[in-house]
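INFO batch 0412 | record 1 of 1 | parsing
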Amino acid sequence: MMSTCGAYSTACCDKENHASHVDDGTMAGTQVPPLLRTLSRSQRRGVVGGALGRQPYLGLMDRQEYAHLNAQRYLDWAGGLVGSPYSEPERFEWAIITAHTPFQTSVAGFLASRGATTLTELCETLAYAGVLGAGNKASYIIRLREGLSDGSLSLPSPPYHDWRRTHKLPGLMHTKLSFGICLCDPYGSDVVCIDVHVGKVYGADSRRIMRSLSEYERVELQILREADEVGLPPFCFQWAVWDWQRVRATHRPPTNHDFLWANPTQVQLPLFSSLEG
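INFO prediction complete | emitting tokens
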């Protein structure tokens, strides 16, 4: 299932073609997003090295400019997913666990439950970690494991957009199902995860997109078009949009999602602390 479209990491967003993430208060590379070209040198330096932990000051750039400027960061993080020690089924288990559960609680529940093999063990482990809806989630995970084992369920395959219309996995509506697909194929996924935060960026009613796949796909199409304009894989662009929205809303710099999981013995950062509600 997993794509190995590593060409994105060199051809699309190399240092020759895109400005890379900047930590020193100066613009790297030669291409400057259009909005920044309208600023003086001193203004530009303030934008890039300014108020938000030396991150680009997002109040002065749109989401596509932010994604362009920070493209290599998201390509690198996606590359970390490709090399993950966790299996694709486990990534879908992570997607199940994160629903309506605070991020650090989800991490604790996921890591603690790796050795749980029965419904009772899994339920008790998740509940002890504080995961919300532990009983239901344990049941979904067991059903996923059993279905994949006996062949009654299959993991998503490209084109994911079509697969999502005709298949389901236990405990995963289209938002979380798309999330799991992105975790498994971060360079090749043709679907994206539109959570509440990303939905706000595009003026989407979160309840409508959760209930209606057609409404979800309408918003998703806009994200796919913008990703294509920037030259990023859809998931990398969507990830950048989420960070762009988060920084604007919380005035905190993006967290380093060195993900899935660089060192499983540490509480690192599975993806998307936004998927908490």
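INFO post-check: Residues 81-250 form one domain.
INFO record closed
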